[in-house]
Specification:
The protein is an alpha+beta fold and 371 residues long. It has ten helices and 18 strands.
Length: 371
């Protein structure tokens, strides 16, 4: 029986992985990154190792064993370039898809940078890391919020436009665009996403700009194996790269969303490519689908959780939901952030949807209540 090790899986995605592996007679092992060394210490033959996050500890743990036969993904230099946002900016330094950026060590340096760039908004990001924690929008009027940042930080010019993610899978060594998802941000200054959606009617010009960015990126980045979740901003004049993550988006949620929307199973495609198995997954449908992420908002001790299965909306059909917390748990908002509380997935009854018009409705009707 073939084996595959999955590092740092969420409870929701773990169930999906188990079912997929059982269908293909693959033994799925679920291990935390910091336990990988002990687990593989006495093994002489190494299996496939699939990191489900892009943290430095996970990359190091996985690549320590790639030289001994384990299949991990792109080469180690590529993995570190994606995990380190500054390295990625340097890789794209002469690209029209890059964003103006600099590193700073204090709030005062942010103010000076904004003055020299003559811009009213910037985005502060940790140089390493793949989550939204400590990613903040800084403006002329809220610069004091930067006092809580863990310096040094990467500062980027704030680009306005439609935020999308490109879900890419390498098949036989070639990067292949599987689908494009729209993202809806929540209230600034923090970058907690409110939704991912597959609208099935993406503007052709938007798609063309995204594909141009991907072509440019893959000529610079040695990406010949594995999976990538690539975030970008697209507006009337250009597409700008936000970041590249060598993992499933949203801890596996983008896999579910694409499968429901297009019929294509990214996990199936990845496993079959890694293990040289025949894959039957393909795009067979085209359904508008939205994945709403429960918002922590003010936070506190949970009194009740949303019940999306009871939502009565003439345009939305309930599909599934999942909670990572329960009644009585304490949730903490950004910037500390206790993590995603849960999510709900809906499909459009009339084949189209506009996530921007749905967000306020979902926020009001799928709110967590606190004691």
């Amino acid at each position: 029986m073939k084996q595959a090790i999955f590092l740092d899986s969420t409870p929701y995605f773990k169930d999906k992985i188990k079912k997929s592996c059982e269908q293909k007679n693959i033994e799925a092992l679920f291990i935390e990154s910091n336990q990988l060394t002990d687990h593989l210490k006495n093994k002489t033959k190494f299996p496939v190792i699939i990191p489900l996050k892009s943290s430095a500890i996970e990359i190091s743990a996985a690549y320590n064993y790639s030289q001994s036969g384990a299949k991990v993904g792109p080469d180690q230099n590529t993995a570190y370039a994606c995990a380190n946002k500054l390295k990625m900016r340097e890789l794209m330094q002469d690209s029209p898809h890059n964003i103006k950026h600099s590193t700073v060590s204090s709030p005062q340096e942010i103010m000076s940078l904004m003055h020299s760039w003559d811009c009213k908004k910037v985005v502060a990001k940790p140089i390493c890391g793949s989550s939204s924690r400590h990613v903040q929008e800084i403006t002329n009027t809220n610069v004091l919020i930067a006092n809580s940042l863990p310096f040094p930080m990467l500062i980027e010019e704030k680009i306005e436009g439609l935020e999308i993610s490109a879900e890419v899978l390498c098949l036989s060594g070639k990067p292949t665009l599987i689908g494009i998802l729209e993202k809806t941000p929540f209230h600034p200054p923090y970058f907690e996403e409110a939704s991912y959606s597959y609208t099935n009617n993406l503007n052709p010009r938007t798609k063309a700009k995204a594909e141009s960015l991907l072509q440019d990126l893959f000529t610079r980045l040695k990406f010949n194996s594995g999976i990538a979740h690539i975030e970008m901003i697209v507006n009337e004049s250009h597409a700008k790269l936000i970041e590249v993550n060598l993992r499933f988006g949203g801890g596996g949620l983008t896999n579910t969303l694409l499968k429901l929307s297009t019929g294509y199973d990214l996990l199936d495609g990845l496993l079959c490519d890694y293990l040289k198995l025949p894959s039957t997954t393909q795009k067979t449908i085209n359904k508008a689908t939205i994945l709403y992420l429960y918002q922590v908002n003010k936070g506190g001790k949970v009194k009740s959780l949303p019940m999306p299965e009871l939502l009565n909306n003439e345009n939305l059909k309930y599909v599934e939901h999942f909670e990572y917390c329960k009644k009585g748990d304490t949730l903490i908002p950004y910037p500390q952030y206790s993590g995603l509380p849960g999510f709900a997935i809906f499909q459009s009854k009339n084949q189209t949807l506009d996530p921007n018009t749905l967000i306020t409705y979902l926020e009001q009707n799928l709110a967590i209540t606190y004691e």
